[in-house]
């Protein structure tokens, strides 16, 4: 459903901007190659995703100041409850273990 919405939105935007001629449709009812390529390489995580800001972490002289984003696209009461449990679990675990910056400095492989 999300891919269908993305295709419809992209098609409408191209049409309204006057760029619909830039996409090459082989025949009516098939997606243009550009759309197929875009959909095949799209990566939308947003569920229980942990993203460290490596630039901020590398600028810290003190290892206790890494910047980490905890992302989740929860949008219903049930998914928000699960997200809260995940966040609580993960931040407790992160507090008990050395972060990526400390691991790198001590020579431990972070994978």
Commentary on this structure:
With 111 residues, the protein is mainly α. The chain folds into two domains: 1-41, no CATH class; 49-96, no CATH class. It contains five helices and two strands; from the N terminus they run H-H-E-H-E-H-H. It has helices at 2-16, 33-41, 54-59, 77-96, 100-106, and strands at 49-53, 67-71. The protein has a two-stranded antiparallel ribbon. The radius of gyration is 21 Å and the shape is elongated. 1% of the residues are buried. The model is unreliable at 101-111 (pLDDT under 50).
- Any idea what the radius of gyration is? 21 Å
Helix amount, in percent?
40-55%
Mean pLDDT: 78
Report the portion of residues in β strands.
5-15%
Low-pLDDT residue intervals, each spanning 5 or more residues: 101-111
Order of the strands making up the biggest sheet: 1-2
Q: Class by helix and strand content?
A: mainly alpha
How far apart are the termini?
Answer: 34 Å
- Which outline best applies? elongated
* Total count of strands: 2
Q: How many discrete structural domains?
A: 2
Count the helices. How many? 5
Order of helices and strands: HHEHEHH
What does the main sheet amount to? 2 strands, antiparallel
GO molecular function: ATP binding; tetrahydrofolylpolyglutamate synthase activity
InterPro entries: Folylpolyglutamate_synth
Organism: Aegilops tauschii subsp. strangulata
Protein name: Folylpolyglutamate synthase
Give a summary of the structure in a few sentences.
This protein is mainly α. It has helices at residues 2-16, 33-41, 54-59, 77-96, 100-106; strands spanning 49-53, 67-71. The longest helix is centred in the C-terminal third of the chain and has 20 residues, at 77-96.
């Amino acid at each position: 459903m999300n891919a269908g919405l993305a295709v419809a939105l992209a098609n409408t935007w191209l049409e309204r901007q006057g760029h619909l001629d830039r996409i090459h449709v082989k025949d009516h009812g098939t997606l243009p190659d550009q759309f197929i390529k875009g959909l095949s390489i799209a990566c939308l995580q947003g569920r229980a995703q942990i993203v460290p800001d490596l630039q901020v972490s590398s600028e810290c002289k003190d290892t206790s100041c890494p910047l980490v984003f905890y992302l989740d696209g929860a949008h219903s009461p049930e998914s928000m409850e699960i997200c809260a449990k995940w966040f609580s679990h993960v931040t407790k675990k992160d507090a008990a273990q050395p972060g990526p910056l400390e691991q790198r400095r001590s020579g431990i492989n972070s994978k």
